[in-house]
């Protein structure tokens, strides 16, 4: 699964990586974990789960996610709630600015986007609390658009695959370029989930 480190080995790297992509997706189809947020890949459910999973262990998120979706099953229900209720339901996940940003963004989505998360990455990034990673996750998982995600897990995997020892701007640029070349046009969200898992 290792790839050559030379920039001149581009086609060889890509061929090896495509083979690895196939193996990765086959592995994921057999071994994927059964999380509640994988039952519905609506833009809203992807958004909520991705925000909850930021800097939080998966085990802590499962129960919170279920309770959240029972109380706020839609963007409209979240937008219509008081911020105190939103932060109260968030208790135990920490980083309360994430909950406040979800609430604030839900109100903007209801007002400016007729209650639907935009399927344009530039528009998504304008919403409070949606950064590069979260926008890419929503675009790939919910909208099926080939935007690669780069979190700590993906970074570790790609550093091993590309034999990168030190992480710096050059390494990050190289990994982003490789991910952009590898992500499939069909089911890009599955590729992203497989890499993260």
Give a description of the structure.
The chain is mostly helical and 197 residues long. Helix content is 63%, strand content 0%. It has eleven helices and no strands. It has helices spanning 10-31, 43-53, 58-71, 75-79, 83-90, 97-112, 121-125, 132-141, 152-161, 169-182, 188-196. Helix 2 (43-53) packs antiparallel against helix 8 (132-141) and helix 8 crosses helix 11. The protein is globular. The two termini are 17 Å apart. Mean pLDDT is 89; it is low at 1-12.
Our Rg estimate from Cα atoms comes to 18 Å
Shape: globular
Number of strands: 0
Number of helices in the DSSP assignment: 11
What are the segments in which pLDDT stays under 50 over at least 5 consecutive residues?
1-12
The succession of helices and strands, N to C, reads HHHHHHHHHHH
| Helix coverage percent | 55-70%
Q: Tell me the β content.
A: under 5%
List keywords for this structure.
197 residues; mainly alpha; 11 helices
Summarize the structure.
The protein is mainly α. The protein is 63% helix and 0% strand.
Layout of strands and helices, then pairs:
Layout: H1 10-31, H2 43-53, H3 58-71, H4 75-79, H5 83-90, H6 97-112, H7 121-125, H8 132-141, H9 152-161, H10 169-182, H11 188-196
Helix pairs in contact: 1-11, 2-3, 2-8, 8-11
């Amino acid at each position: 699964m290792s790839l050559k480190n030379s920039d001149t080995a581009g086609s060889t790297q890509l061929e090896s990586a495509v083979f690895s992509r196939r193996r990765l997706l086959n592995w994921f189809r057999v071994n994927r974990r059964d999380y509640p947020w994988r039952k519905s890949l609506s833009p809203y459910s992807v958004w909520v789960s991705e925000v909850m999973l930021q800097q939080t262990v998966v085990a802590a998120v499962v129960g919170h996610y279920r309770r959240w979706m029972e109380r706020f099953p839609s963007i409209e229900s979240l937008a219509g709630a008081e911020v105190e209720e939103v932060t109260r339901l968030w208790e135990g996940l920490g980083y309360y600015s994430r909950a406040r940003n979800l609430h604030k963004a839900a109100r903007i989505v209801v007002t400016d986007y007729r209650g639907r998360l935009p399927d344009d990455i530039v528009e998504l990034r304008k919403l409070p609390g949606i950064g590069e990673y979260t926008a890419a996750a929503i675009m790939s998982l919910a909208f099926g658009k080939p935007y690669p995600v780069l979190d700590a897990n993906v970074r570790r995997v790609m550093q091993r695959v590309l034999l990168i020892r030190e992480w710096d701007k050059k390494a990050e640029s190289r990994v982003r370029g490789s991910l952009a070349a590898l992500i499939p046009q069909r089911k890009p969200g599955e590729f992203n989930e497989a890499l993260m898992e």
